[in-house]
Design brief:
This protein has 433 residues and is mainly α. The chain has helices spanning 26-31, 43-54, 57-69, 74-97, 104-146, 161-173, 187-209, 226-235, 243-248, 256-282, 299-319, 321-330, 337-361, 365-393, 399-432. One of its GO terms (cellular component) is vacuolar membrane.
């Protein structure tokens, strides 16, 4: 498969351009964009791009969510998949309405002005940051299983062996944050997609060839767990900040709706299948990361664990790109390139170190992931797209469509608030115990 087929527009740093400044006037802002798009992606390429950015940490937690929410909660999983496919469609409609809009930030600005831009930026950067914390917690958890039985003399660091290895892994990834042109390591984004798919395949192989009987009981419904479970579900579908860039990169943007339907159908099927496989295989003992429940002696498990360990290391530079580039944009134009690169790399490194410290301090994967989904992802994937759509098309929408979108906003707020409260309580309890 060609590199172009696996190109994710959101990660094309070589085309990253100066976007906006708080002092820019409205017209200049709308003429600007984070990305200089090349409209050369076919339908298949776009499906791969969208599916690739959707599949991630969410799949690790799906078996845990199915087991703890009950098999009936799978309807909520599918419902969120359908709802997020719809919100990807209305984001594209907002782009069609104003051809000057090129990304999620532009849509927020067009709908609500500078306040819309600030709110959208805040939530997206928060989503990136909390996602990186979750990735680093996952890295730490899986490293402990990969190196089971290995004890290093790190008493001088006051860290455990696993924590020390996590620090080493993050340190290995740090140099990538100093690169301005990430096209030199573009293979890492492709590798991240392959590793995510490998996790699904290895769980399937465990079910078929691993000698583990898929006969565990799954409860029908555990209503008290639904708030936290909803955050895990929504997190797996919240990549909406990337969708405008995928839309702009298509040769035929009129096919974007079909791309969304196909991509979300594939990913929803993958999540549902993996969720039921993991829950049936491991039952109540299933971990919040399904890879940690797989029999350690199996070769499939080793592949899955290493895939989960390597995935965060492939994502750090790309995930921090929007933040680092925005910082660089704020620097004085007269500053030379070496100084700009140093400040960009230093700030990115400090952010990643802060992520590392937070991940080692609060190592509760399912709590942080659920909190991210409830607090941030519901806004980015459900509430904001519907609000943007209503504001931009207010005079053109029929009453049923208006009511439908207000209902979706209410759904997003409902699950967001309940999930945030539930996840925060659980996180505080785990942290204090």
């Amino acid at each position: 498969m060609s590199e172009n087929a696996l190109r994710i527009p959101f990660f094309k740093s070589e085309s990253f351009r100066k976007n906006y400044d708080d002092d820019d006037d409205d017209e200049n802002y709308l003429k600007s964009s984070f990305f200089e798009q090349q409209a050369d992606s076919s339908f298949l390429h776009s499906v791969i791009n969208m599916s690739g950015v959707l599949i991630g940490l969410g799949q690790l937690a799906t078996p845990y969510a199915i087991q703890n929410g009950g098999w009936a909660s799978a309807f909520l999983l599918v419902g969120f998949g359908v709802l997020c496919a719809y919100t990807s469609y209305i984001l594209a409609e907002c782009l069609k309405y104003d051809l000057k809009s090129k990304n999620y930030f532009d849509i927020g600005y067009h709908a609500f002005g500078k306040k819309g831009r600030i709110i959208a930026s805040t939530f997206i950067y928060l989503d990136i940051f909390m996602g990186l914390v979750s990735y680093t917690i996952s890295l730490n958890d899986n490293l402990s299983t990969v190196f089971t039985g290995i004890n290093l003399d790190v008493s001088w660091t006051s860290l455990s062996t696993t924590q020390f290895l996590t620090v080493i892994a993050v340190a290995i990834a740090l140099p990538t944050l100093w690169l301005r042109d990430l096209s030199k390591i573009s293979f890492l984004s492709t590798m991240g997609i392959i590793l995510s798919l490998m996790i699904f395949i290895t769980v399937g192989c465990t079910a078929v060839f691993g000698g583990v009987k898929a006969n565990q009981a799954i409860p029908a419904l555990q209503l008290e767990n639904i708030p936290a479970v909803s955050g895990l579900y929504i997190f797996g579908f919240a990549s909406h900040m990337v969708f405008p860039d995928i839309y702009k990169s298509m040769k035929d943007p009129s096919k974007f709706t079909k791309v969304s339907v196909v991509s979300f159908s594939l990913v929803t099927f993958l999540y549902t299948a993996l969720g039921f496989m993991g829950a049936k295989l491991f039952g109540p003992a299933v971990s919040s990361q399904v890879t940690l429940s797989m029999p350690e002696h199996l070769i499939f498990t080793k592949f899955a664990l290493w895939a989960t360990v390597l995935t965060p290391m492939t994502k750090y530079a790309f995930e921090l790109l929007p933040i680092a580039s925005q910082i660089e944009h704020k620097l004085h134009p007269s500053m030379n390139s070496k100084a700009r690169m140093f400040i960009r790399g230093a700030v990115g490194s400090l952010l990643l170190i802060f992520v590392l410290v937070l991940a080692l301090t609060v190592p509760y994967f399912e709590r942080v992931l659920s909190l991210t989904g409830s607090l941030v992802s519901t806004g980015v994937a459900i509430v904001f797209p519907c609000a943007f759509y209503i504001k931009i098309f207010w005079s053109e929408l029929s009453k049923p469509i208006l009511v439908l979108n207000f209902f979706f906003i209410a759904v997003g707020v409902f699950f967001g608030v309940l999930g945030t409260i539930s996840s925060t309580k659980s996180l505080l309890q785990d942290f204090t115990n």
